[in-house]
Amino acid sequence: MSDAALLPGKMQATPVLDLNVINREWEEVDATSLVQWGHETFGQGLVLSTSFGIQSAVMLHLVTQVVPDIPVIWVDTGYLPVETYRFAEELTARLGLNLKVYQSPLSPARMEALHGRLWEQNDVAALNRYDQIRKVEPMQRALSELQATAWLTGLRSDQTDHRKLLDRIGQQGDRYKLLPILNWSAKDVYQYLTAHDLPYHPLFDKGYVTVGDWHSSRPITAGDTNERDTRFKGLKQECGLHLPQSPEEAASLDSSSL
Questions:
Q1: Which of 20, 110, 206, 221 has a Cα-to-Cα distance from 230 of 20 to 30 A?
Q2: Residue 142 appears among annotated catalytic residues
Q3: Phi-psi region of 173 (alpha: psi -120 to 50; beta: other; left: phi over 0)
Q4: Are strands 169-172 and 175-178 parallel, antiparallel or unpaired?
Q5: If 0-12 CB within 10 Å is exposed, 13-18 middle and 19+ buried, where does residue 110 land?
Q6: Looking at 46, 62, 75, 239, which residue is catalytic?
Q7: Which fold has domain 3-256?
Q8: pLDDT truncated to tens, each residue of the chain (258 aa)?
Q9: Close Cβ partners of 212 (under 8 Å, ≥ 6 residues apart)
Q10: Long-range Cβ pairs for the range 200-204 (8 Å, 24+)
Q11: Distance CA 193, CA 12 (A)
Q12: Please, which residues have CB within 8 angstroms of residue 191's CB and are 6 or more apart in sequence?
């Protein structure tokens, strides 16, 4: 790590990485080692995001064992279940998280007054507008204000069609994105939680396999073919946080996924 990365208020320059080479080198390397490499490579520019979802304790524990004071970004939509807020308090205290909470500048009440209850419309465009207001804008602001050059997330390839196309080390906009547990299975997650005596989100015991806002999440049923069918009325899989933010980014992703 450069000296600049060790000085308060100083950001080390973002390295230019050959992602094809690096992904070949790190394809089979364990998750903890990838986090350590990220810390050494990006220094104070490295951040972690969390939703305090069903299995969020895995990444929060794994990463903070390597970088205890890493900034942890949590986008609070204002519509999370009571259980999520309590789960967040529990994990923040237990793991000593350096939590950075971001919210939309548009309050829930004001948004509903201006745009209606967007999640009640059986329309992808309305859901996308909701996600842009309550999730995407606060996340982009967080990354900018924290001067993030690299972003750790707990995405797994078995979660959505889009995530099947991802590499462990990629780019979103002008930031690198590190996915240490991309290739983990549900069994791997369970074994990690058990080995470290970590909790699932409390709604797991009520049949939830993924949870976001209270109005767009439900328990899994026998008719669901994918866990993400339980979100967004089954109309879409992604909330937008992990999708390209411009047509140019989308074109780049498409070309790299051929």
A1: 110
A2: no
A3: left
A4: antiparallel
A5: exposed
A6: 239
A7: Rossmann fold (3.40.50)
A8: 433 333 444 455 677 888 999 989 988 899 999 999 999 999 999 999 999 999 999 999 999 999 999 999 999 999 999 999 999 999 999 999 999 999 999 999 999 999 999 989 878 888 889 999 999 999 999 999 999 999 999 988 776 676 677 889 999 888 999 999 999 988 999 999 999 999 999 999 998 888 889 988 888 877 766 666 666 666 544 454 544 444 434 333 332 222
A9: 51, 53, 77, 80, 231, 239
A10: 200/54, 200/55, 200/57, 201/52, 201/53, 201/54, 201/55, 201/56, 201/83, 201/84, 201/87, 202/83, 202/86, 202/87, 203/54, 203/81, 203/83, 203/84, 204/54
A11: 34
A12: none
Q: What is the DSSP string of 206-229?
A: GT-SS--STTSB----TT-SSGGG
Residue for token digits 């807020």? 85
Q: Domain coordinates of the chain in residue numbers?
A: 3-256
Structure tokens at 184: 């983990």
Cβ neighbours of 155 (radius 10 Å):
20
